[in-house]
Structure formats: structure tokens, C-alpha cells
Amino acid sequence: MGTDAGHMHTVASAAVIGAGTMGCAILSGMLAATEGPFAAVGPADVVAADPGQAHRDAVAERFGVRCVACAADIDRAVDVVFLCVKPQVMDEALRQVNENPLLVGERMPLFVTVAAGLKTPTYEAALPAGARVVRAMPNTPLSVGAGATGLCAGACATADDVAVACGLFSAVGCAVVVEEDAMDAVCAVSGSGPAYVDAFIEALRDAGASLGLRAEVAETLALQTVLGAAKLLQETGQAPEEARRAVCSPGGTTLAGLDALFRTGFQASVQAAVAAADQRSKELSA
Ligand SMILES: NC(=O)C1=CN([C@@H]2O[C@H](COP(=O)(O)OP(=O)(O)OC[C@H]3O[C@@H](n4cnc5c(N)ncnc54)[C@H](O)[C@@H]3O)[C@@H](O)[C@H]2O)C=CC1
Ligand SMILES: O=C(O)[C@@H]1CCC=N1
């Protein structure tokens, strides 16, 4: 990595191992970045590795980056390697990284992993001693530039390494740094969170349909309401409690609705969902 005048490390080249949903979101973020550590990275500086020919063709076409079948085939040294394969095949992907002297030689890249459940010591044990690892837990809205990512540093990662990883995830949403023991909670809140919000939109749509709205109309209204409520909070900086009160007229419809929502256990349901996901994340990483 080079150092610019502001002493912030800049990235000149990167590899993405696993060009699926997350890998493509990361490719898109790094190639679109006009500021931050990835600002200078262009398609010619990036290589993607994926065993799926269809994936490779799609990625080459969409991003104009070079594609190879696996990490062992990467034919250049890079500054950062993003590990974006499923946890179940991470062993194999790391074995292929280890087969490549350009990736595990004297000048090792920074490794940034997005796999759920696998802890940084797992990577540090699989890679040569001294490997710098940053673990990230993004979510699916990353692919539309609106991700929420929690990150933590492995034992050998430097503050600059964390800043580099944050720079990427901030380009496609927001990024927060946490201790590794908080990663299960991050997974439970924001990693899995888009699915809870989807379930809420489904429920709001179905409730509207049960009142006689056409399902498409109810879905359009439910979706835009969730998007709009989140945008209002983000743009005004209001607390959700405050924004919620602004919707409520005394003796009006919203208070009647909220009363029923809370009486029937909405907060307890969300609490239970996050606790169950946190527990499952702990089991998966045990
Ligand atoms: N989908 C989600 O909501 C989230 C996923 N994650 C993590 O992101 C990682 C990737 O997930 P997705 O992108 O959703 O999966 P995906 O299935 O869309 O992409 C994985 C890609 O890895 C490729 N692959 C398999 N073996 C490989 C190998 N040895 N070398 C190179 N590529 C290989 C597959 O062909 C596939 O294209 C997972 O570890 C998951 O835990 C993290 C946060 C949220
Ligand atoms: O469901 C899962 O296990 C992964 C982690 C966060 C989102 N998807």
C-alpha cells in the first residue's frame, strides 16, 4: 500500500475471492469510490476469483475486471484480499490462497473477510504467521450502496488496516468498528436485520390487503413507508421515539395502532428475534 500526503494508506490493487452477492457488492463499491483508500483502484487493478464460469463471465462483463477460477490462479500480488465465500467453503478458499506464493509470500496483503461466524483466529491459524485480518459483517443492502457493516480487527491488523476496510464499507453504506465479541450481536441486528424488515413489510402489506387494498397497492405503500421513515430519521437526525411521537395525534389513529402493536408483543418479538439470531451466531462460530 502506498502512503499519500495525508498519511492515509491508499490501496493500489485488490482481489475478491468469491464473486457472489457480497463479492459483487464489494467490487461495485471499490470501483465506484472516488474518495477514500480505494479511490485510485480501477478495473485493471482488480482480480476476482470464482469457480463458477457464469459468475466469472457476469463479473467480467459488469465490472471489466480480470477473473480467474480460484485464489491459486491469481497471477499478481495485491494489497487487499476480500474473502467473500460461504463459511462452509472458507477452508478450501484459504487452502487455495495458501497455494499462491503471490498472496502468502514475503509481502502479504491485508485479508478482509465477510463470512458469518468464523472468528479472526481461524484465519490467523490457516494463513502464515503475521497475517493481517479484518473481519466484517455487512448486510445485503450493501449491493445497493446502503449496507450497514460492523468490523473488528484480528490480532495483527493495524489501525490503518481497519481504516482501509472501513473505507470500503463506508463507500457502500455505513461502517462501525466493534470488538470481536460483539460480532454476534452485529450479525443479529444488522446482518440478519434486512430479513426482519422484509417480514415487517410483508405483514404490513398483508394487513392492508386484509382491509381490501389490492396486494400490489398495499406492498407499494408498505415499502415506501419503511423507506421514508428510515430516510426521515437519517436526514433529520431525529431519535425514533421523537419521530414516532410526531405521527401521533391525541386520540388519533396512530396511538390506537401503536397501542395494539405494543400490547400484542411487538417489542418482545423483536427482542426474541435478535436474541435467537445472536444465539445461533454463537453456536455457528463455536
Ligand atoms: N447474504 C448475506 O446476507 C450475508 C452474507 N455474509 C457472508 O458473505 C459470504 C458470501 O455470501 P454471499 O455473497 O451471500 O454468497 P454467494 O453464494 O452469493 O457467493 C459466494 C461465491 O463464492 C464462490 N465460491 C465458492 N467456492 C469458492 C472458492 N473456493 N474460491 C472462490 N470462490 C468460491 C461461489 O461460486 C459464489 O459465487 C458468506 O460467508 C456469508 O456468511 C455476510 C453478511 C450478510
Ligand atoms: O443468515 C445468516 O447466517 C447470514 C449471516 C447474516 C445474514 N445472513
UniProtKB/TrEMBL annotation:
Catalysed conversion reaction: L-proline + NADP(+) = (S)-1-pyrroline-5-carboxylate + NADPH + 2 H(+); L-proline + NAD(+) = (S)-1-pyrroline-5-carboxylate + NADH + 2 H(+)
Recorded GO CC terms: cytoplasm
Gene source species: Xiamenia xianingshaonis
GO terms (BP aspect): L-proline biosynthetic process
Pathway annotation: Amino-acid biosynthesis; L-proline biosynthesis; L-proline from L-glutamate 5-semialdehyde: step 1/1
Annotated Pyrroline-5-carboxylate reductase dimerisation domain residues: 180-284
One family name in Pfam for this protein: F420_oxidored
Protein family: Belongs to the pyrroline-5-carboxylate reductase family.
PANTHER family on file: PYRROLINE-5-CARBOXYLATE REDUCTASE, PYRROLINE-5-CARBOXYLATE REDUCTASE 3
Subcellular compartments: Cytoplasm
Name of the protein: Pyrroline-5-carboxylate reductase
Key words of the record: Amino-acid biosynthesis, Cytoplasm, NADP, Oxidoreductase, Proline biosynthesis
Binding locations of NADP(+): 17-22
Biological role: Catalyzes the reduction of 1-pyrroline-5-carboxylate (PCA) to L-proline.
Start and end residues of each Pyrroline-5-carboxylate reductase catalytic N-terminal domain: 15-99
Record-listed E.C. numbers: 1.5.1.2
GO molecular function: pyrroline-5-carboxylate reductase activity
